[in-house]
Amino acid sequence: MRPFLLKGGRVIDPSRRSDGVADVYVVEGKIESIGHNIEVAADVDTIDVAGRVVAPGLIDVHVHLREPGQEDQETIATGAMSAVAGGFTAICSMPNTDPVTDNQAAVGFVIRQSIRAAKARVHPIGAVSLGQRGEQLAEFGEMVGAGAVAVSDDGHPVSSSHLMRTALEYAKVFGIPVADHCEDMALAEGGSMHEGIISTRMGLQGIPSAAEEIMVARDIILAELTGGHVHLCHMSTRGSVDLIRRAKDKGLRVTAEAAPHHFSLTHERVLGYDTNAKMNPPLREEEDREAIRQGLKDGTIDVIATDHAPHHYDAKEREFDEAPNGIIGLETALGLGLRELVEPGLLSLTELLDRMSTQPARVFKLPGGTLAVGAPADIVVFDPMRRWTVDPRMGFSRSRNTPFAGEELPGVVEWTFVDGRRVYGGE
Amino acid sequence: MTRPLGKDLIGLESLTSEQILLMLDTAEPFKEVSERSIKKVPALRGKTIVNLFFEPSTRTRISFEFAEKRLSADTVNVASTGSSVSKGETLVDTARNLEAMRIDMVVVRHSMSGAAQFLAERIRSNVVNAGDGKHEHPTQALLDLLTLRDRFGRLEGLKVAICGDVLHSRVARSNIWGLLKLGAQVGVCGPPTLLPRGIETLGVTVLPRIEDAIEWADALNVLRLQLERMQSGFVPSLREYNRVFGVTSERLDRAPRDLVILHPGPMNRGVEIDSDVADGPHSVILPQVTNGVAVRMAVLYLLAGGAPDWAAPPAGEDSR
Questions:
Q1: Which residue of chain B comes nearest to A317, CA vs CA?
Q2: CB-CB: which of B110, B197, B199 is closest to A195?
Q3: At B197, is the pLDDT very low, low, confident or very high (cuts 50, 70, 90)?
């Protein structure tokens, strides 16, 4: 592998709280040095990145890759390609595949496919329970041995408090988080959007905020009981943010994520019955959106995660109640973070990159999230000033289900490097 | 030709008071057509209308069919059972295939909210919503408005209480929009389990008890309580519902004024409404049904490009 030099970019490394113009020198897939006017041999590739931001590659801890089972929607290869096009160098794949990723062979399959794809790193998340049925614990130890970085029954909540308790206790042995999709199924049943004035007007059955908050409260209580690490997926309500803030004040091992759509959109986006505005948890109210933003600002919400959920065109092109939940998100996450959080002045660019890179690495104990000397050269280079228009037909995901089609976003990803390999961007 | 309503009739929420009044005023002369011995005018001669009913319906489907036939349109009925829908064809494919046979209008009834709009956005034909899920049932609200106007001579300032399962009712939503836009006051009354969140922000008064509604209102629009609401735990039993929320003659006898009683049907006698009320002197339940045909004639006529003066040249000269 040839060494290369990224010359003259604005180097932002949230892990070292540094932000300034510098050169980044990469040798043997690792960060060799960072400094001003680094002298390199004549045969070293030099890429002029003046005016661009050079940052640790983004990390998404919540992605659905649909392989095995629904390769018409996404494969590990297309998902990993979509990731690097969005500036992500590592993604964590949720286990709700078919069959469920609930054993070491299935975890190993995901890793092998990601190595063949050779784009973003893919860190599998194993199931909490066999078949995600919420009954019997999956073999955490063997899955971790095969490369799993967390466990989750995402897509389904862990409804049994007993199972959640044992999962949190048992996961401590391996130092992994239990990532929970918080939803009281009895309260949410039949709902297809947020319960509020819009659902009333549209005649759609609502999902009350309480359906999420009840499970958030339960998980926090169980984290306190067990001392285990609970990671709360895709937080969407102001009540959840309050609960997490109080849990963190008590010093509990609770971490949380929020999705770009929850800090960008509200339930008003559902008007017109656009199935690309249908997701679970649903788009909530303006006060909820604002609480998520504040939570990201003050660190109550640790990370931004996309909940990238590809669905086939035909599945979304139908009656609202019948359409599946979720949207793709890997290629729009950075732009939405810039437009919704940085441009209004809520987060600094360093803080945004922290929530999208350094914090995800810390919370899930992953490589990356830093440009420290000696770290793997997982790097994104983007132009924060250039704007682009979202066109799902031009994306790398196999699916096109996004509510942001036609919108203009800032931040064009120009190069993405994983282990010093250029996996996205031109010569 | 102008289209005073636009291409489709999906709901009353998006319409102006002028558009709603236009439909009511256009219905007036059509009432007389149904009283003739030869119940037919040539207004929609040569037009093809498909009645696409994905949900069982007797009253609404037949009312539309009469309206179409009395306007001289050619009609086809498609029900979900016994059609390609039961073979798994999607809604939009079904409609596009029908459209490929060169039709002019689709009247659609569907169990899911938003289905009519979904269809309207994807086909060129005019779409009339004959009830979509819990969203809207505009022609039902129009016939309720027409019946109230017949009885009271006005809608402005009228107090109408919508009673019962508002949560699951498309009739309630369409009535709320229509009544409010025409200046009536709207109350809703029912068990809190069957009132949707934030309903008061639409500008309606929440009346906690049926006695409050009877005390307050000039007219009650009594909604059907679907029997499956019991199994889903919204109300404990039909018996108790009747005792606490039923519109009974004992309760009406204590009203400060004679209340006009509407019901969109089909009724559960002895549950939300007692027989002596339904069949009593203040019930307008059958006039509602009669008006339904006239209102639907008006809607179809206007969507096809007809001018408000129905005696004007029929829309045989194409309206598109």
A1: B92
A2: B197
A3: confident
What tokens were used for B185? 């006051």
Q: What is the ipTM of this complex?
A: 0.90
Give the residues of chain A that fall short of pLDDT 50: none
Residue A356: DSSP 8-state: I
pLDDT, tens digit (0-9, with 9 covering 90-100), for B116-127: 999 999 999 999
**DSSP 8-state assignment for residue A281:** S
Question: Are B90 and A318 a contacting pair at CB < 8 A?
Answer: yes
In our burial notation (b when 16+ CB lie closer than 10 A, e otherwise), range B118-152 reads bbbeebebbbbbbbbbbbbbbbbbbbbbbbbbbbb
pLDDT beyond 80 at B88:
no
With beta carbons less than 8 A apart as the criterion, state whether B60 and B108 touch.
no
> How far is it, in rounded angstroms, from Cα A133 to Cα A158?
9
CB distance A200–B114 less than 8 Å? no
Interface of A with B in 196-215 (CB under 8 A): 196-197, 199-206, 208
**How far apart are the C-alpha atoms of A421 and A352, rounded to whole Å?**
24
Q: Which of B114, B197, B198 sits opposite A273 (nearest CB)?
A: B114
Smallest CA–CA separation between B46 and chain A, in Å?
Answer: 31
What span, in angstroms and rounded, lies between the C-alpha atoms of A359 and A353?
9
What's the CA gap between A76 and A396, in Å, rounded?
12
| Rounded Cα gap, residues A8 and B41, in angstroms | 81
Helix H or strand E segment including B96? helix B91-100
Chain B nearest-CA distance from A400, in A, is 19
Q: List, as one string, the DSSP characters of A358-398.
A: IHHHHHHT-S-S---TTSB--EEEEEEEEEEE--GGGSSSS
- Is B134 in contact with A319 (Cβ distance < 8 A)? no
pLDDT number for residue B312: 44
Place of tokens 């609480």: A291
- Cβ(B92)–Cβ(B85) below 8 Å: no
Dist. CA A396–CA A408, nearest whole Å: 18
- pTM of the predicted model as reported, rounded to 2 decimal places: 0.93
* Beta carbons of A406 and A414 less than 8 angstroms apart: no
The question of whether B137 is a catalytic residue gets the answer yes
Does residue B33 register a pLDDT over 70?
Answer: yes
Distance CA A421, CA A418 (A): 5
Helices (H), A283-358: 286-298, 313-316, 333-337, 349-353
Q: How far A192 CA sits from the closest chain B CA (Å)?
A: 11
Q: Do A273 and B13 touch (CB under 8 A)?
A: no
Burial class of residue B308 (count of CB atoms within 10 Å of its CB; 0-12, 13-18, 19+): middle
> Nearest CA to A96 among A21, A178, A152?
A152
Structure tokens at B1: 């030709």
Whether omega before A99 lies within 30 degrees of 0, making that bond cis, reads: yes
Give the distance from residue A238's alpha carbon to the nearest chain B alpha carbon, in angstroms: 18
Active-site residue flag, B87: yes
Q: Answer whether A39's CB lies under 8 Å from A338's CB.
A: no
Furthest-apart CA pair in chain B: how many Å? Answer: 58
pLDDT at A260 (0 to 100): 98
CB neighbours of residue B9 within 10 Å: 28
Catalytic residue among B134, B137, B170, B296: B137
Length of chain A, in residues? 427
Which residues of A are known catalytic residues? 307
Which residues of chain B does A322 touch, with a Cβ-Cβ cutoff of 8 Å?
Answer: 112
What residue of A is the nearest CA neighbor of B117? Answer: A272
3-state secondary structure at position A402: coil
Are the C-beta atoms of B194 and B168 separated by less than 8 Å?
yes
For residue A121, give the H/E element and its range: strand A121-126
Number of helices and strands (H, E) in chain A? 14, 18
Facing residue for B113 by CB, picked from A208, A317, A321:
A321
Residues of B in contact with A315 (CB under 8 A): none
